[in-house]
Specification:
427 residues, alpha/beta, FAD/NAD(P)-binding domain, 4-stranded antiparallel sheet, globular, 6-stranded mixed sheet, Polyamine Oxidase, Chain A, domain 2, 20 strands
Length: 427
């Protein structure tokens, strides 16, 4: 790592997606930036471990290429995205049903209507809702009065077996909560992205996303294994030295960021992902699998090596996720057994290879949701992260860019009694 400089235009604490996005915009505008992070690699909550020929993302995560900010900030082609098929597998006591996206696979419509989950009226109400928010203006989603997502679905007539056995299990993994108490605005924006894009895994693991952002920064900007200890007016104290800078961006995890910034602590949602290896895949499908009977804690499971073969040099890699932070041996055995029932497979040949209990997987976002929370706190201090926008990769990237633009505007504003600084224009 390069030596920490004593002075810069901006110090950014936290090299997650938001901090990396902010650093990219600020360095692109010609500012001297110091980006620090206590970890040994960039990414924050988006990290991947390599173990015994496997790629283990730290929690089951996907990148939706329909996210506008992902298209703006990332070179999606170089990520070599491997997409999930458009649909779901829902297991129940009567077997397994494949529910495909009829907008992408019109031939699947009849099979969807015949699936033993919900009435035709409820399925039609779901199709109308998905089409309206998927292809209507996003601004309408943002401007309508907010409510809990569950209340909105009830209002639309999506409140029967289809909701209980398909929609709620699917959204539990997306929102990290089971009661659909999340803001309708966030829920609909995420569903809009699902309608428009196919969630995917980078061939090199989710770590490829922060690695790409970091690689685009000038040499000497990123300082890993470096933690922010305290900060005052125009000065940041780290465990590697002191940096003087007129702007400090706090881009740590939501709880740490709010503590350092003196903001109310956000409630966080927890998820745990268990990884198992098997010689043969328990399913040949490139689809997310759900337990429509909710016969245990599992919210979803997928053979990720079916989607991205690079995730397993040999055999197959299975990722299974639950709500909460519990990777005990008892929970692993329970999840393994439930996932095997979902696949209709024998789990005795599965090998447990690791688990990731993430207590702070996502910030809670109840209604009414303010989609753009303030990032400028005054006295040269700024805060960014998905907790300031939306709980998603899209939200983290947007927050980083939005914060960088606020920093640029403030640093370039004429100060009383001084001439405007001769900085190059943003872009």
């Amino acid at each position: 790592m390069p030596e920490l400089p004593g002075q810069a235009d901006v110090v950014i604490a936290g090299a997650g997606l938001a901090g990396l996005a902010a650093a990219r915009v600020l360095t692109g505008a010609g500012l001297e930036v110091v980006l620090i992070d206590p970890a040994d690699a960039p990414g924050g909550r988006v990290r991947t471990d390599r173990r015994d020929g496997l790629l283990l993302d730290r929690g089951f995560q996907l990148l939706n290429p329909a996210y506008p900010e992902a298209r703006r900030m990332l070179d999606l082609g170089r990520l070599d995205l491997r997409s999930f098929a458009p649909g779901l597998v829902v297991a129940s006591g009567s077997g397994r049903s494949v529910l495909a996206d009829p907008l992408r696979r019109p031939g699947a419509l009849l099979g969807d209507l015949r699936a033993p989950f919900g009435s035709a009226a409820e399925k039609l109400a779901l199709a109308r809702w998905a089409a309206r928010i998927g292809y209507g203006p996003a601004q309408r989603i943002k401007e309508r009065p907010d409510s809990a997502l569950g209340a909105e679905l009830t209002r639309l007539g999506i409140s029967g077996e289809l909701r209980r056995r398909v929609i709620e299990p699917f959204l539990a993994g997306v929102l990290a909560e089971s009661g659909l108490s999340t803001s309708r605005r966030l829920g609909e924006l995420l569903v809009r992205a699902f309608v428009r894009g196919r969630p995917a895994l980078p061939a090199g693991g989710m770590q490829a996303i922060p690695d790409q952002l970091a690689a685009r920064l000038p040499t000497g900007v990123l300082h890993l294994n470096t933690a922010l200890l305290s900060a005052g007016a125009g000065i940041a104290h780290t465990d590697a030295g002191t940096v003087r800078a007129p702007a400090l961006v706090i881009a740590c995890d939501p709880v740490t960021a709010c503590r350092l910034a003196g903001l109310p602590q956000p409630a966080m949602r927890a998820l745990t992902t268990f990884y198992h290896r098997s010689q043969e895949p328990p399913s040949p499908l490139e689809l997310l699998h759900l337990d429509g009977d909710a016969a245990g804690p599992l919210v979803n499971t997928a053979v990720v090596s079916n989607v991205a073969p690079t995730y397993a040099a040999s055999g197959s890699l299975i990722a299974s996720t639950i709500l909460g932070a519990d990777d005990s041996a008892a929970m692993e055995a329970t999840v393994r057994a439930q996932a095997a029932r979902v696949y209709g497979a024998d789990p005795r040949g599965w090998t447990y290879v690791g688990s990731y209990p993430i207590a702070g997987a996502l910030p809670a976002m109840p209604p009414p949701l303010r989609l753009r929370k303030p990032v400028a706190l005054g006295d040269g201090v700024y805060v960014c992260g998905d907790h300031r926008d939306t709980a998603s990769i899209q939200g983290a990237l947007v927050s980083g860019r939005r914060t960088a633009l606020a920093v640029l505007a403030d640093l370039r504003a004429p100060q009383p009694g001084t001439a405007p600084p001769g900085r190059p224009a943003a872009g």
